[in-house]
Amino acid sequence: MKTLINNNVKNIIRDTLKLDEALNSQEKQFKINTDFLSNENIENHKQLYKGYIDNFNKSNLKLDSVEKSQSNSNHSEFRSLKLDETYNLNGVYLHELHFANIGDPNSQIKMDSLSYMRLARDFGSFDNWQKDFLACCNAAQCGWAITYLNTYTQTYMNAMVDLHSNNVPFGSYPVIVMDVWQHAYYRDYLKDVNTYSRAMMKQLRWSVIEERVMKADKILQVIRGQV
Amino acid sequence: MKTLINNNVKNIIRDTLKLDEALNSQEKQFKINTDFLSNENIENHKQLYKGYIDNFNKSNLKLDSVEKSQSNSNHSEFRSLKLDETYNLNGVYLHELHFANIGDPNSQIKMDSLSYMRLARDFGSFDNWQKDFLACCNAAQCGWAITYLNTYTQTYMNAMVDLHSNNVPFGSYPVIVMDVWQHAYYRDYLKDVNTYSRAMMKQLRWSVIEERVMKADKILQVIRGQV
Amino acid sequence: MKTLINNNVKNIIRDTLKLDEALNSQEKQFKINTDFLSNENIENHKQLYKGYIDNFNKSNLKLDSVEKSQSNSNHSEFRSLKLDETYNLNGVYLHELHFANIGDPNSQIKMDSLSYMRLARDFGSFDNWQKDFLACCNAAQCGWAITYLNTYTQTYMNAMVDLHSNNVPFGSYPVIVMDVWQHAYYRDYLKDVNTYSRAMMKQLRWSVIEERVMKADKILQVIRGQV
Amino acid sequence: MKTLINNNVKNIIRDTLKLDEALNSQEKQFKINTDFLSNENIENHKQLYKGYIDNFNKSNLKLDSVEKSQSNSNHSEFRSLKLDETYNLNGVYLHELHFANIGDPNSQIKMDSLSYMRLARDFGSFDNWQKDFLACCNAAQCGWAITYLNTYTQTYMNAMVDLHSNNVPFGSYPVIVMDVWQHAYYRDYLKDVNTYSRAMMKQLRWSVIEERVMKADKILQVIRGQV
Question: Are D197 and D180 in contact (CB under 8 A)?
Answer without folding.
Answer: yes
